[in-house]
Amino acid sequence: MIQQILAYGTLIIAAGYLVWKFLLPKSLFSKGKSNSNSCGSDNCGCN
Amino acid sequence: MSKNINVALIGNPNTGKTSVFNQLTGLKQKVGNYPGITVEKKEGICKLPRGVKAHILDLPGTYSLNTTSLDESLVVELLLNKNDKDYPDVAVVISDVENLKRNLLLFTQIKDLKIPTILVVNMADRMDRKGISLDVGAMEKKLDTKIALVSTRKNTGIDHIKELIADYKSISSKPILDPTRISPEYFDRLKKTFPQEDLYKLWLVITQDVNFMPIEKKRIQDATDFSTKSKDELKKLQHKETVLRYQLINNILKETYKVDFMAAKGLRASLDKILTHKVFGYLIFFVILLTIFQAIFDWSGYPMDFIDEQFAMAAEWVKNTLPPGVFTDLLAEGIIAGIGGIVIFIPQIAFLFLFISLLEESGYMSRVVFLMDRLMRPFGLSGKSVVPLISGNACAIPAIMATRTIENWKERLITILVTPFTTCSARLPVYLILIALVIPEGSVLGLSYQALTLMLLYLIGFGMALLSAMVLNKILKIKSRSVFMVEMPTYRLPLVKNVVYTVIEKTKSFVLGAGKIILAISIVLWFLGSNGYSEDFQDADRIVTERIENEGLSTYSKNYIQNNVASYRESAEAEGLAPNALQDSIEVLTQELSERAVAQEIASYKLEHSYIGQAGKAFEPLVKPLGYDWKIGIAVLTSFAAREVFVGTLATIYSVGSDEEETIKNRMAAELDDDGNPLFNLASGISLMLFYAFAMQCMSTLAIVKRETNSWKWPMLQLGFMSVFAYIIALIAYQILI
Known about the structure:
The complex is a heterodimer. Chain A is mainly alpha-helical. Chain A has 1 helix and no strands. By secondary structure, chain B is an alpha/beta fold.
């Protein structure tokens, strides 16, 4: 039983991580625009 | 509580801004003897004397405030916008003691914006060796500023910078050049139209777009409306400004800066002549590349075998020690096998980055960029495209970001589109395992076939990038070309600290970045491979046992038993075992091996009818013409997110239900096709390598291309073209070689 719980718990975490990484838009998780990743103004063509 | 002092670190490329930034803030941004390291602004906090704190901003390198590219424009936008929260209270201009004349052009421009400006003369430790003498006091007076002599290599002068920043209010913000000297008539009108505005700032706003072709930039309404001169005329005035500034700088340097050229010249000039020579330059580069690839194979073999064996042993230990159950199986067959699939490549990745780091640190990489510029021109690429293309050998993501230094939009776009063809480190695990499996171990002229194949794959990637650029150049019809200027840094002995740091950081980011994804995919794959809904899966034991009773073991199993028995017989005979004892022990061994083979056949049957097996079988018709079975098909499919997942996926698939904990390479080598021949043969191996050489297979790169081009059109075109092209080439290769 414990083995089952541990195994399926691991599966849920792994699948959740992959969905978060590749399928969900990052904007859902970010609080605001980070300045450190900006290359300039909003209309400089690279944002 | 007092506000932090805003400090902007500004300077020409490759003057050591990032090193100064790291030493001021204690952070560890990547440093290199290679222009274009900083393409974004980076920030950190620095503690100053008397409890004051400074907010330090490391800005991209720029030669002047007459911007020509995106990264440079970031500097000007900040300096022109007093409302920006990062607007500096004090600017710190980092200069290189050997290139002071060129560096001072930027210094004088910043000073003319009436910002208190400190001059940092870096690399001061080279002054004696280069015969340079500098009258700091006299230069401070002439430039009306404070100067700090610094050596980031020797860690000297940093405290002096901190003191100067803390006392920034005492630094003069008086301009150094009267802007009306550029064109009295033009500036007079400008003054009358905008009496409240600072003339030099207005001039910079007006001329910001002169060298900047297709990208929309911020505009200040009133000022741009005033622009009564054509772009050509404004450019001429810019040139005049530059000439006036150099006259001023020359006069200052004449009295304060002396170089004994007899001492300064010599080794560097001779080395440059050879290393950038039209023939010898390429020859030397070619030999260096060969040496690197040879070393990657020769040196990393033992640690790789060691790691592989440790993971096999760990899986066996887990199975034998933990209570039997689904979680124990998941740990042994899914998690450990998956992680093993990536950790095994640490030695080779580390060696690759060791060599790249040595080339960068020594200053040789800039000579390569210069050499490559000649090679690039016929393909319609700018010399500036070389930096992203070479960086692409580590990872396409920072390489695509490095295209921000290219001012011409179409050249930048072409570079973005072709960079993913260069061989990034994620391709390396795929190449290495396939080369080890399908390329023989012999050598020619002391160079192993395996090392030569790896080098050829790198050249194919680079060649394809050039070829695609040429085609895109024709399609996109680039009219204007940008000017290529590359900093030639002084040759220097690589700093062990920097090299070790780069190797550790790059390897760590590769293993941790890719490792999390691989681990998650391995877990999901293991579940999909260990469960199934069909009756075949549920009844596998009975079906396989009945089949073996009726038809006997499969060819693979028979070969497996025969080979093991033969090798046992050979060693037992060599040890002088008596014939009767030998016969008895062979019977026991055959029985054991048969039981193992039956278990293996049941596991294999189950896998084939598991969820992943069903999905793989559905996908198989698409990859069959390329020489791949459904298992490889699944690995290709899962590695769409990231190439390096390929090996981890195969490692997990092959270990599902396996009782024997073998190394990844052995498991792959033992795979047979329907006819009982090795699945990974020369034809399928080459086909797979070429597929990975050309296919996009990287979601993160697609995301960064979307961000840099501000459109989904380009990444989708890139994905479509690269995938179709990779498929066609892999298909042709397999069909020719089979």
